[in-house]
Write a structure and sequence with these properties.
Blueprint lengths: L1 H15 L3 H15 L7 H12 L2 H6 L2 H15 L2 H13 L5 H15 L7 H14 L8
Length: 142
């Protein structure tokens, strides 16, 4: 059983190898949620990086430098107002047709929203926007 789990995890990582579109979409969703209230504080940055690096498949497919660099680029965009947020939303389009990828992106965003123990109204609204963009229903994953 352990061998099957290990094979599944490594298979997922192999599937992601070189898939920067998925890494970018995950980081974009994290940045969108972190910036949902109009500002990004240090704890949100730390929580977003932690959530993305905690993803076993991404952590296996990409090194910490790649993940942190991508996360920083997406957080910088999130601070760029509506234009920055629109470019982040467009990152989601690249993976929306793959349900497994879309679910990974949405679940990461939900984890970030819930990181402090509560999901406020602005975070909930952003989760709903992300889910809609991905063709998913957030309530199905609550």
């Amino acid at each position: 059983m352990l061998a099957k789990l290990k094979e599944r995890l490594s298979g997922g990582a192999n599937r992601l190898q070189g898939r920067t579109d998925l890494l970018e979409a995950v980081c974009a969703s994290a940045a969108l949620v972190a910036a949902a209230d109009g500002s990004i504080d240090d704890s949100e940055i730390e929580g977003a990086v932690k959530a993305v690096t905690a993803n076993e498949a991404l952590n296996t497919a990409f090194d910490a430098r790649q993940i942190e660099g991508c996360m920083q680029r997406m957080l910088d965009r999130a601070g760029g107002g509506r234009v920055g947020q629109m470019t982040l939303m467009k990152e989601l389009d690249d993976i929306a047709s793959n349900t497994d990828d879309a679910e990974m992106v949405l679940l990461t965003a939900m984890d970030i929203a819930d990181a402090d123990g509560t999901v406020d109204e602005t975070e909930r609204a952003m989760i709903d926007k992300i889910a809609k963009r991905l063709g998913l229903k957030a309530e199905s994953y609550a």
